[in-house]
Amino acid sequence: MEVLRLVAEGQSNKAIGVSMGLSALTVKSHLARIARKLGTGDRAGMVAVALRTGIIH
To answer: Which residues cross the membrane (predicted)?
Structure first.
């Protein structure tokens, strides 16, 4: 959820990785899993579904 919240704030994979102590590739992997679970194909879609369903605020 933290990765998704930071995506919603407009942060890049690299910036998310730095703030969470992860590599950009790990962030990318997390986002790919989130996209599959939410049934979306891009960052904007993930954020839209997450906001609509209350996963993030």
So the answer is: none
How is domain 2-53 classified at the CATH fold level? Arc Repressor Mutant, subunit A (1.10.10)
Whole-prediction pTM: 0.88
Taking the C-alpha atoms of 24, 27, 28 and 34 in order, what is their torsion angle to the nearest 10 degrees? -170
Tens of pLDDT, residues 22-49: 999 999 999 999 999 999 989 999 999 9
Angle between helices 24-38 and 13-20 (to 10 degrees): 110
In one letter, which amino acid is 44? A
* Strand, helix or coil for residue 31: helix
Res 33: pLDDT:
96
Give 12's DSSP letter.
-
